[in-house]
Write a structure and sequence with these properties.
Elements lengths: L1 E6 L5 E8 L5 E5 L5 E7 L5 E3 L7 H5 L7 E3 L5 E2 L3 E4 L2 E4 L8 E2 L12 E5 L4 E10 L10 E10 L3 E10 L3 E2 L3 E3 L16 E4 L3 E2 L13 E2 L11 E2 L9 H6 L3 E5 L8 E7 L5 E7 L3 E5 L8 E2 L5 E2 L6 E5 L14 E2 L5 E11 L1
Length: 349
């Protein structure tokens, strides 16, 4: 179902699409930034509740906000000093996070109006989104054509498929930046959520949250989520990495082979009984605990989004990969197809 949601700063119409399934799930997505504005999921008693942070109206998304529910690109996460070298040429990007480049720059994919079409695949409902990014957009080389498809399957899962091609060598790293709170959609802290991350290693960062280049073993550190652990159990430990991130704001190296859809993380919220499993084909998952939410934003149903009221599990390549050749490559060349898949699968326990 499609409805009018608002108007973009450039005058383009913004629409809101609703997908529903027989399992009691409903997702609403706008073609502005590909933002998931709401996601209703039943709890253990069968009562549906919204599990993502966001706004009731388009106005909130048109103002500055921390990428609630958006598609981030061209390069999700950080690039050090807002620059990189590719094929002997140096490219300069916007420095919109201190001295660094973050989530595609000042006008990234999260602020674009995408072409949209509703689809009806077997066993579900889907929304097709497409955007063409011109050469030089935010400083990146090459014209980039991107398609993102959200599918709400008849089972309890939201699937996101990405496809991109370019006419010149470029770098690319896309992700979905959803903020989840399985208890109440962001009215309370997520510290009681129990998290498992399928990763034996993580990426340490410096004080500016740029990876040092090391892939460090999680054993013996507060970064060890190989067994289910509540977020609040160690988040304020006197550990250098938690000090840098003001909590968790790091990439974990997902076990298994990149390119294969595999489990990256599991989240259990005890009061509602909701469980969310995150599957990905990407090398890493960024686990972020809403450390920079500060109570200045009021969201849906009057919820005030304070520190650690939401968590993100962003499936992606590693931050700063264009400047760290030992990391998996994020280079996309003409004739190649960038593809990746993320699945958010829900159940109760």
């Amino acid at each position: 179902m499609k409805q009018v949601f608002g108007v973009a700063p450039n005058g383009a119409p913004i629409d809101l699409y609703t997908l529903a399934n027989p399992a009691g799930m409903r997702v609403q997505i706008t073609n502005y930034g590909g933002i998931v504005t709401s996601l209703l999921v039943p709890d253990r008693k069968g009562r549906p509740g919204d599990v993502v942070l966001g706004f009731d109206r388009i106005d909130g998304y048109l103002k500055k906000h921390p990428y609630f529910g958006a598609i981030c690109g061209r390069y999700a996460n950080r690039i050090a000093c807002g620059c990189f070298t590719l094929a002997g040429a140096e490219y300069t990007l916007a420095r919109n996070d201190g001295h660094n480049h973050l989530h595609g720059g000042v006008l990234g994919f999260d602020k674009m109006v995408w072409k949209a079409a509703e689809l009806a695949p077997m066993g579900g409902a889907a929304l097709w989104l497409a955007y063409s990014s011109p050469a030089g957009d935010e400083g990146y080389p090459g014209k980039l054509d991107v398609v993102v498809t959200y599918t709400l399957a008849d089972g309890k899962e939201l699937r996101i498929d990405y496809l991109a091609t370019t006419d010149a060598e470029t770098v690319l790293n896309l992700t979905h930046h959803g903020y989840f709170n399985l208890a109440d959609g962001g009215k309370s802290e997520v510290l009681g959520h129990e998290v498992t991350i399928e990763a034996a290693r993580f990426l340490p960062v410096d004080a500016a949250l740029i990876p040092t280049g090391e892939l460090r073993d999680v054993r013996g550190t507060p970064m060890d989520f190989t067994r289910a652990t509540s977020i609040g159990a160690r988040i304020d430990a006197a550990h250098e990495q938690l000090v840098h991130g003001r909590g968790y704001d790091h990439t974990w190296v997902v076990n298994g082979a990149p390119g294969q859809l595999r489990l990256a993380a599991r989240v259990f919220e005890p009061t509602s009984g909701r469980v969310m499993e995150v599957l990905t084909t990407e090398p890493g998952v960024q686990f972020y605990t809403g450390n920079f939410l500060d109570g200045t934003l009021t969201g849906k149903d009057g919820a005030v989004y304070r520190r650690r009221h939401g968590l993100c599990l962003e499936c992606q390549h590693f931050p700063d990969s264009p400047n760290q050749p030992q990391f998996p490559s994020t280079v996309l060349k003409p004739g190649q197809r960038y593809t990746q898949t993320t699945v958010y699968r829900f159940s109760v326990a």
